[in-house]
Amino acid sequence: MITIRCETGEDVVVAGDSLVGAKLAGANLHRALLDGQDLRAADLSGSDLRSAWLERSDLTDSNLAGAKLPACNASGARFARANLNGAFMRSGIYEQADFAEADFTGADVGRARFAQAILNGANLRSAIDLRDADLKGARADDRTRWPDDFDPLEHGVVVNSLPLDSP
User: Fold this and answer.
1) CATH code for the domain defined by 1-167
2) Which residues pair with residue 12 across a beta bridge?
3) What tens digit of pLDDT does each residue of 121-166 get?
4) What's the confidence (pLDDT) of residue 163?
5) Which pTM does this prediction carry?
6) What span, in angstroms and rounded, lies between the C-alpha atoms of 164 and 141?
7) Cα angle vertex 39, ends 35, 40, to 5°?
8) Measured between alpha carbons, how far is 158 from 84 in angstroms, rounded to an integer?
9) Average pLDDT for 86-109
10) How far apart are CA 41 and CA 83, in angstroms?
11) Residue 142, C-beta contacts closer than 8 angstroms, at least 6 positions apart
């Protein structure tokens, strides 16, 4: 059994000895202390991660569809290939986080801080309030999808072109 500590005092007990692939859909993880945790392929869809601490955590391939992540601190976390469809990410801190190939379809990212984050291949085409997010120094590539009327360079994103022989 694993106990996820929450600053609210409402800890969450998870069966098993690892959070990899954990089934936490709809869980109340408000102010959870998850810094540095391995949450690869975890199902956190619809979970409440308000003000959670996720610094340097690995959420690669995780399902965060519909999750509430406002004001969370996920600096340096890894969200590669994460499903963030409809996630509420407003005012969160995602500085230096890795969102390579993550799907932000319908995710609300207004006022979130993505400074120096990796956005290579991410789908931000229908992210909500992207113009209000801090993207200074974030890195993207030719595969990153943006809203039609959005210029990433105007928002401080560094866009690197892929070599012609790249996949």
Assistant:
1) 2.160.20.80
2) 4
3) 999 999 999 999 999 999 999 999 999 999 999 999 999 976 666 5
4) 64
5) 0.95
6) 13
7) 135
8) 22
9) 98
10) 10
11) 159, 160, 161, 162
What are the distances in angstroms from CA 124 to CA 6, 40, 86, 94? 31, 21, 12, 15
Q: What are the pLDDT digits (tens) for 57-92?
A: 999 999 999 999 999 999 999 999 999 999 999 999
CB 147 within 8 A of CB 131: no
Return the SS3 of 2. strand
Q: Which of 72, 67, 74 is nearest to 99 (CA)?
A: 74
What distance in Å separates the CA atoms of residue 87 and residue 66, rounded to the nearest whole number? 4
Neighbours of 117 (CB within 10 A): 30
Beta bridge partners of 3: 13
User: Domain coordinates of the chain in residue numbers?
Assistant: 1-167
pLDDT for 167 beyond 70: no
The token pair at 78 is: 């890894």
Measured CA distances, 109 to 90, 93, 117, 143 (Å): 5, 10, 13, 20
